[in-house]
Specification:
alpha+beta, 19 helices, 9-stranded mixed sheet, 569 residues, single chain, 5-stranded mixed sheet, 23 strands, binds flavin-adenine dinucleotide
Length: 569
């Protein structure tokens, strides 16, 4: 890392160290000095939590065409066929790369073991027991730590993009690094910050999934796409006091049944494929079932019965699920698991092309933060880790403009005439400002869950937008917000957190709350904009797909929402 009075400088900055950020860093040409930021430790991410596996058309009875067709079908008319073809065709190369690095996928004899997941027509999901994500990211992290061109900055929080004065090129990010609020300059910035599940009260995502990359890109003026599409996973553990631990789809692929209190497989009432129907169908089936059969649907659950699976298969394939359920008092060999749907995967994100480039010069996005077009309105299970790899690998083609360092100098000079930051007023009453942050943080996710969860309708969406706007105004009036949101103008030299009078964790709490408010606003507004139902977006007031008006993407830039019709994929 080279540093100057105004910033640290890298050739490429990768923000996020899940599967997307780690693999991107490894694929970038090794001549580049790469800065890799993560807001926790290197091994803490949604990727690390992934259970089921990675899809790739590598079995003898499978083909890229079949995998492409399954992906397009799940995407409900909104996939980008070129992006899907790229992902599927490059899947075997990425898997071979992981194998050569030492990722230990399960095998049957010498062959890679493949399981079946919902809406796949073949067994094509590679796995490492039920901790596939851990098996992948631990190897990727080891490789990253061995690379002398990659500088890891753990416990570092990116607050915003740093742009040219004209706002037309990304020059780096503003971040809290090692207790210093500073600008990090780079020839290219890659956002790999994962999803935004924490905006919902019920989610399978880890605490770090606060939509930071999407919010930063939006504030910077990049184009976002299809933010209303959220996949709700049907089977999250639902026990008072327990986190919404995900009970993988692979469990149903291996033969587990979803049953009601009377042991009836009720999902067949809603879809002929029963438990193996697409996720949105199964989630809605549970939601509808609870609405009509449970006295308190919001807190109800149905049951996932693993007993139809041979006990030795359960033990071999799902040791982590067995262990976590046992911790919460459930013996999966003897009794069914209480489950209900929870927000799981965000199909929408920052619009990118086949090279992972966003609409803004110098800015790229990879992984759940991006919208590459491979998921359309609904993700096919186990395609997301694959997307992280394939679209991360596209960064191997990255070429930086020759004069990129020259772009930084005028930007710094232009800001040198900015008034001094007055720190004292902003921080003096941190306690009361913190109460405001906490109040928003507690009340926002239940509001978004109620208005933009599995079932949406106009009145609730509009009420939620008004409330979120009120909170956004309140938030931006905080003295701390006045200071921190104007930081890029004032950071010729780093400011230490001591001088700010703030702990780095307080800066993160402020930044995450701002991002959650922004993504809540964007997601709920996009859900109100799309007056039809499709994939991961269900409107009870428009319960059917409307191909004539809505076989279209929702695009958002600043305060402008518009639709872009898609050719039939
Ligand atoms: C429980 C669970 C099970 C899943 N199972 C599967 C599965 O079996 N197969 C599959 O394909 N998909 C699965 N998924 C989905 C998949 O895991 C994710 O879509 C994927 O891992 C996202 O990877 P990512 O690299 O984009 O983001 P993440 O893995 O979430 O990583 C995000 C990174 O960004 C960093 N970051 C975020 N904001 C900032 C900031 N402001 N500053 C600095 N750093 C920041 C974080 O610290 C972290 O390092 C699962 C998801 C969950 C939650």
């Amino acid at each position: 890392m080279s540093s100057s009075s105004h910033s640290y400088q890298f050739d490429v900055l990768v923000v996020g160290a899940g599967a997307a950020g780690l693999y991107t860093s490894l694929c970038l040409p090794s001549r580049f000095r790469v800065g890799l930021l993560t807001k926790d430790e290197l091994l803490t991410s949604a990727s690390e939590w992934a259970q089921g596996g990675i899809a790739a058309p590598m079995a003898a009875d499978d083909s890229p065409e079949l995998h492409i067709e399954d992906t397009l079908r799940a995407g409900a008319g909104l996939c980008d066929r070129q992006a899907v073809a790229l992902m599927v065709q490059q899947a075997p190369d990425c898997i071979r790369d992981l194998l050569s690095m030492g990722v230990l996928f399960d095998r049957h004899g010498a062959d890679l073991a493949m399981t079946l997941e919902a809406a796949h027509s073949r067994r094509r999901v590679l796995h490492a027991a039920d901790t596939t994500g851990r098996a992948v990211v631990s190897v990727l992290a080891e490789q990253v730590l061995q690379r002398s061109n990659i500088h890891v900055m753990s416990r570092s929080f990116a607050l915003d993009l740093w742009l040219t004065a004209a706002g037309d090129r990304c020059l780096g990010v503003v971040a809290m690094i090692e207790g210093q609020l500073c600008r990090l300059a780079a020839g290219a910035v890659v956002l790999a910050t994962g999803g935004g599940g924490q905006v919902f009260a019920q989610t399978t995502n880890p605490a770090l999934s606060t939509g930071d990359g999407v919010a930063m890109a939006w504030r910077g003026g990049a184009v976002l796409r299809d933010l209303e599409f959220v996949q709700f996973h049907p089977t999250a553990l639902t026990k008072p006091g327990a986190p919404r631990f995900l009970v993988s789809e692979a469990v149903r692929g291996e033969g587990a049944h979803l049953i009601d209190d009377h042991g009836r497989r009720f999902v067949f009432d809603y879809h002929p494929q029963g438990e193996l129907a697409p996720r949105d169908v199964v989630s809605r089936a549970i939601f509808s079932y609870l609405q009509s059969h449970h006295p308190d649907p919001a807190h109800g659950h149905v049951w996932l019965d693993l007993r139809p699976i041979a006990p030795e298969t359960i033990q071999r394939r799902f040791p982590n699920i067995v262990q976590v359920c046992r911790r919460w008092g459930i013996d999966v060999f003897q009794a069914p698991v209480p489950v209900a749907p929870a927000a799981h995967y965000w199909m929408g994100g920052v619009l990118t092309d086949l090279r992972s480039q966003t609409s803004m010069a110098g800015l790229y996005a990879v992984g759940e933060t991006s919208s590459t077009g491979v998921h359309g309105a609904n993700r096919l299970a186990s395609n997301s880790l694959l997307e992280c790899l394939v679209f991360g690998a596209q960064l191997k083609h990255l070429a930086l403009p020759e004069n990129w360092t020259a772009a930084i100098a005028p930007s710094v000079r232009a800001s040198e005439s900015s008034p001094d930051v007055s720190l004292s007023g902003a921080i003096a009453d941190w306690e009361s400002q913190y109460v405001t942050l906490q109040t928003i943080r507690q009340n926002l996710p239940p509001l978004v869950w109620q208005a933009a969860g599995i079932c949406r309708e106009k009145q609730l969406l509009e009420g939620a937008i008004a409330q979120i706007q009120e909170w956004r105004l309140k938030f931006s009036d905080l003295p701390l917000s006045q200071l921190l949101s104007r930081c890029p103008l004032h950071l010729e030299t780093p400011i230490s957190s001591d001088k700010l009078g703030l702990d780095p964790s307080q800066v993160r709490a402020w930044g995450e709350t701002r991002n959650l408010l922004d993504v809540a606003y964007l997601l709920v507004k996009s859900a109100a904009f799309r007056t039809e139902s499709r994939g991961g977006h269900y409107r009870s007031d428009y319960p059917h797909p409307n191909d004539r008006d809505w076989q279209a993407h929702t695009l958002v830039q600043s305060e402008r929402w518009w639709k872009l019709p898609v050719e039939s994929p």
